[in-house]
Amino acid sequence: MLFSAAFPLLAAIAVSASPVPETKRGVYTLREGKPRLSIEQRAALSGQSLRSIIATDTANVIAKYEHNKQLAQAAQEGGSLDKRASATISLTDVNSEGVDELYYGTLNMGTPSQAITFDFDTGSSDLWVPTQNSNGRNDGTHFNTAKSSTYRNTGQSFSDQYGSGSCSGTLATDTVSFGSLKVSTQYFGAVTKVSTDFDNTPATGLCGLAYQSIASTGHAPLPMNLYNTGKISTPEFGFRITADTSSGAELTLGGIASDYASAAFKSTPVTSQTYYEVNTNGITVGGSVVSGSFPAAIDTGTTLIYVPTSAASAFWNAIPGTSSNDDGSYNYPCSYSGTVGFSFPNIGNLNFNLNDLYAGNNGDGTCVGAVLGQDIQDVNGNNFAIIGDVFIKSYYTVFNFGSNYVAFSPAHGST
């Protein structure tokens, strides 16, 4: 995908993602054994700077939202319950060099079922998986369509674009199970071509959880499909994503985790039924709003936080000793000990764990910040933020697609 003129600097310094090396390094997954390299490791391996690696990740995030915006704009132009309440699956936290890079879990596809790992993403809406005929690296975890008696090829093409990464294949249907919940006809991309940019992710496929309006397939994403077919009675799902540990993270569809049943939640309404976009009062330092207001997507599929450039400047200017790298990224004293967060309508200020402000060490007493400035437009043409896992891991987060809101409760054990 081509980048718009709004992003010339980051596009100019972006580099292609590094291939996974033969030697063992980084964090290995429980099933696949494929490493996920940290930002610092990718910089060292490629000979590029931390800023360049972050710029590449930024470009990919930008392109995802540009692609989704186009789908949403095109959409704007153009069963009985079986009493199953919910199901929960475990997620693996891939932590590299102190940064929680992503979270993935397992779905079962086909008949007989095949266990496939997926990255679960509230910033997109498509489910896609490489097949046995894919050009991508196959260590035995790709979906084998020939072994599923319920697989159906629709004959239509499928493609998705994620910045410098892309995938393509055919639109298909098959049975998909999330824990004990099963749908017999789930549309997904049966991918045969995957760019090498996906070599650095341990999950085999991607499961988008946002609204149908931005689905390239044109069909209901998995949570909506489960609800529409009566497999879940509550149109919501809850994320528990952990920090600095490979276990404990989980995703619940059709409800929330049992240990949060009596927890106090604070909610804010979804303002655009594309991604889970909400309004904010601004970004905060020391509990006080230091920027203007802006909308934001709450995105489990993004590691870092991206805010409008004016908000980023105001945020970092409120922290003593910071410096701009003139590309959207900032350095700050590693010894900083204040509080940082976001303020939301109906909620007020929510701080996130200061340890998660860290995205890399410059080796001179300063660290690269996980809050970056980038002017990205939503469907309505407003500059908006993408609030990723850096923030989300401090809260148990509920996404409701019936009453359309996002709700937060402090993560158990968070500091």
UniProtKB/TrEMBL annotation:
Pfam families: Asp (PF00026)
Molecular function as annotated in GO: aspartic-type endopeptidase activity
One record GO biological process: proteolysis
Catalytic machinery residues: D121, D299
Keywords: Aspartyl protease, Hydrolase, Protease, Signal
Span of domain Peptidase A1: 103-409
Family that this chain belongs to: Belongs to the peptidase A1 family.
Name of the protein: Aspartic protease
